[in-house]
Amino acid sequence: MTEATDLAEQAGDRDPRVGLRAVAALRRLLEQLEAVQVRSARAQGWSWQEIAAELGVSRQAVHKKHGRR
Amino acid sequence: MFEKFTADARAVVRGAVEQTDRTGSGTVGEPELLLALLDRADSPAAEALGALGVHERRESVADALAAARRRGGMSTADAAALAGLGIDLDEIVARVEQAHGVGALSADGPAGPRKRARRPFSAEAKSVLERALRIAVGRGDRYIGDEHLLMALTARPGPAAAVLADHGVTYGDVVRELGEARGRRAS
């Protein structure tokens, strides 16, 4: 990862492209982590209501997003 | 749409389905399509990939695709962007895998028997096929060949485009190489 860090530093943190790319990457990472955690909770018998409460969203929202698995 | 596919393009699509066993993803996505393209010989895309030096680096491409899949489809450029925020993507992957098993962060979770063959083509793969059709129409071609699949894979940011870029191949390189090959055939 040091190579990656160097690349980011070379690009300069004032460049909007670097910042926007980081936000987009962070959003993708967030989606992946959410999917992992929801799968894990379902596998452990959590209800959609319980998962939604922890995520701070509605039961419908979390079921619509992850329910087809 | 499939009736317009050349024999080469059909072979790539069939090969991509076979690749799911090797990549362990269970569905066809960009990595499977790219690996299937690299398995072809004597086709327009195969010649372009050969001329661009990708064929001889197939193992390296396959490794990079597998690594990206393990990172949840995030490219090395994504990892660099996150590193700029002080986020170590490899560390996150390692911790998630520690808690949830190897491959947990990949789009469809750890490899397993569930939902096999239920959805052989991911939305990602379908969008590549649709893009290939649009590219073919845009170039006035009346067929969809494996060269259109290769252009579609490189035309937009994604796992395949990112890995090919890391191997020094961009959409522009592919289009130029295909154009030169077409010129050689015509003359």
What does this structure look like?
- The complex is a heterodimer of chains A (69) and B (187).
- Chain A has 69 residues and is mostly helical.
- Chain A has helices at 2-11, 16-43, 48-55, 59-66.
- In chain A, helix 3 crosses helix 4.
- The longest helix of chain A has 28 residues, at 16-43.
- Chain A is elongated and about 45 Å long.
- Chain B is an all-alpha fold and 187 residues long.
- Chain B has ten helices and no strands.
- Chain B has helices at 7-23, 30-39, 44-51, 58-70, 76-84, 89-100, 123-138, 146-155, 159-166, 171-186.
- The longest helix of chain B has 17 residues, at 7-23.
- Chain B starts with 6 loop residues before the first helix and ends with a helix.
- Chain A binds chain B through residues 1, 4-5, 7-9, 11, 13, 18, 21-22, 24-26, 28-29, 32-33, 35-36, 39-40, and chain B through 72-74, 76-85, 87-92, 96, 99-100, 104-105, 107, 109.
- Chain A: This is HTH domain-containing protein.
- Chain A: InterPro entries: RNA_pol_sigma_r3/r4-like.
Helix content of chain A: over 70%
Most strands sheet of chain A: none
> How many separate domains make up the residues of chain B?
1
Helix content of chain B: 55-70%
Shape of chain A: elongated
Instruction: Give the H and E element order of chain B.
Output: HHHHHHHHHH
Unreliable spans of chain A:
none
DSSP summary, beta strand count of chain A: 0
Kindly report how far apart the N and C termini of chain B lie.
31 Å
* Total count of helical runs of at least 4 residues of chain B: 10
Average pLDDT number of chain B: 88
Q: Might you state the CATH topology name of chain B? A: Double Clp-N motif
Rg of chain A computed from alpha carbons, rounded to a whole number of angstroms: 17 Å
> What profile does the largest beta sheet of chain B have?
none
| Beta-strand proportion of chain A | under 5%
Q: Supply the number of helical segments of chain A.
A: 4
Radius of gyration of chain B: 17 Å
Determine the most extensive contact between two protein chains: A-B, 22 and 26 residues
- Note poorly predicted spans of chain B: 111-117
Count of β-strands of chain B: 0
* Multimer state: heterodimer
Pfam families (chain B): Clp_N
Keywords (chain B): Repeat
Protein name (chain B): Peptidase
Domain Clp R (chain B): 2-184
